[in-house]
Fold:
Amino acid sequence: VMTWQFFNEMDLAIGGKSDAAAAWVAELASYVKSIDIHNHLVANSYSFEPGLPAIDALANISHTTTHMYPLANLTADAMYLLKFKTAAYNKPSYIGEFGRQTDPLLTPLVLHNGLWAALAVRGAGAGACWWWDDLIGNPTYMAEYTAVATFMANVPFHRLSWTQMTVSSSS
Structure:
């Protein structure tokens, strides 16, 4: 178990954006933290990319989770949102689902960008592709995961000091 996630895309449920929903998550997060002897992470997820501040800001929510199906630029949207949420809540942010809203067929570029964009802005890990069933046994897609896994295994993230870099291009 990596994370106790209380509700998937809670904002789509009737009352999922209400004060009562936030109070329920707060109570549940506090209770789970009090009984979990292994100190697992605790989170919630939303279909609306910015999430719900009343819940994401809770002290017992370990990290924020974003689902991303942008109409245009997955990379730019993911990088902006993860940077925003990490700064706003002072906790890690994770892309729990990603894909392209306008084209449900996964392409190698969409997979590549969804995996690497999160890492480029110090997300809590590579993004999780929703269309995993298209990936099983496909060497084109598996090579993307292999590259990310190799990179992650060889970078001592916990011992490095990170600074933001800005790059511009004329094209």
Notes: Strands lie at 3-5, 41-43, 64-68, 93-98. The first strand starts at residue 3 and ends at 5. The two ends are 44 Å apart (CA to CA). Residues 66 and 95 are 5 Å apart (CA to CA).
